[in-house]
Specification:
By secondary structure, the chain is of the alpha/beta class. Helix content is 44%, strand content 16%. The chain has a domain of 242 residues: Rossmann fold. The longest helix is centred in the first third of the chain and has 20 residues.
Length: 347
């Protein structure tokens, strides 16, 4: 297969490309990424190094720097390469940033998805895999687990923009027969995650002598999914998923406070000494819970990695790869946004 992955220098995209690259020696992969603050060329340096000395016609990984909102670029790429599949991960994802500035979220998550869908209308592919989020279902505190047909109830600009993208994909499936699959995963975690997210932020803060900032009381429930298990699920659905279907990928329910305690324990720190509670953000959801029975029943997918083992593996990765996250934390995209946090003013 010839596969185009959008947003492949991000956390989930780079892990997925690495998984596909190593699992399928017959597949070739194109990575389209504009390189925003969260896109990191170092995330796939190992893959690029493997092919560095190969002639161009033998390379299986190809990087294209470009914007998914660029309609002319999309038309050229799809016309030039006749991709068998597109896996769409390019997105703005951080809720806090969406509250401060909504524009990039609407442009990328809605406008970018729209541009891709229109490109596929004129340059068809066999399969379009759209990666969404469990947050489109909103707060599940009084609702129980969200199923694939549960109503959308987004609570913040980020989740609203992802819900809008989902609805666009659904409409193109119905109106234009776009061969699409929609995947809604739980909170991913693992290596190469940008350190604005809870787990890498917590590890890197502790290693730099700072505290873990938790909103409110830290009792908010999230469903946590190791990125390796996410990649396996996308792999299955890329090859076996039913066109027009939606699939949840469920994780392990755990509060943010318990996550912080697990990280502190792994780093041999007293949680009371390294956790700080900070003001809640507006529109905070108390609980995200997904039912993943459809994926498990129809495609025999299960978690390969036990939750606490995956947390330990992730913490150990950030400990062993300080140079990776230290370089990220030194960039303006991180430093300027988190200036008050880095200087300790939050606490």
């Amino acid at each position: 297969m010839k596969i185009l992955v959008t947003g492949g220098l991000g956390f989930m995209g780079s892990n997925l490309i690495r998984h596909l690259f190593t699992s399928y020696p017959e597949h070739s992969i194109w990575n389209l990424d504009v390189i925003t603050y969260a896109g990191n060329p170092d995330n796939l340096k190992d893959v690029e190094d493997l092919e560095r000395d190969l002639p161009e016609h033998k390379k299986r990984y190809h990087f294209v720097r470009g914007d998914i909102c660029d309609e002319r670029l999309l038309d050229y790429l799809l016309g030039e390469h006749s991709f068998d599949a597109i896996i769409h991960l390019a997105a703005e994802t951080h809720v806090d940033r969406s509250i401060h500035d909504t524009r990039h979220f609407i442009r990328t998550n809605v406008g970018g998805t729209h541009a891709l869908l229109d490109a596929i209308r004129s340059r068809p592919v066999n399969r379009f895999v759209h990666i969404s989020t469990d947050e489109v279902y909103g707060d599940r505190t009084n609702e129980g687990h969200a199923h694939e047909n549960s109503a959308f109830m987004p609570s913040n600009p980020y989740s609203a923009s992802k819900a809008a993208g989902d609805l666009l994909v659904q409409s193109y499936i119905r109106t234009y027969n776009i061969p699409a699959i929609i995947i809604r995963p739980s909170n991913n975690f693992g290596p190469y995650q940008y350190p604005e997210k809870l787990i890498p932020l917590s590890v890197s803060n502790i290693l730099e002598g700072k505290k873990i900032p938790l909103h409110g009381t830290g009792e908010y429930m999230r469903s946590w999914l190791f990125v390796g298990d996410f990649c396996r699920a996308v792999d299955i659905l890329l090859h076996e998923g039913h066109i027009g279907e939606h699939y949840n990928i469920s994780g392990h329910p755990c509060t943010n406070l318990d996550i912080a305690k697990l990280i502190a324990k792994r780093l041999e720190k007293n949680p009371e000494h390294v956790i700080a509670f900070v003001a809640d953000r507006p529109g905070q959801d108390k609980s995200y819970l997904l039912s993943g029975e459809k994926l498990k029943t129809r495609h025999n997918w299960t978690h390969k990695h036990a939750f606490e083992e995956a947390i330990a593996h992730t913490v150990d990765w950030y400990v062993a790869n300080k140079s990776w996250w230290q370089k990220v934390r030194a960039t303006p995209g991180f430093r300027d946004y988190y200036k008050e946090q880095i200087e300790g003013r939050w606490f």
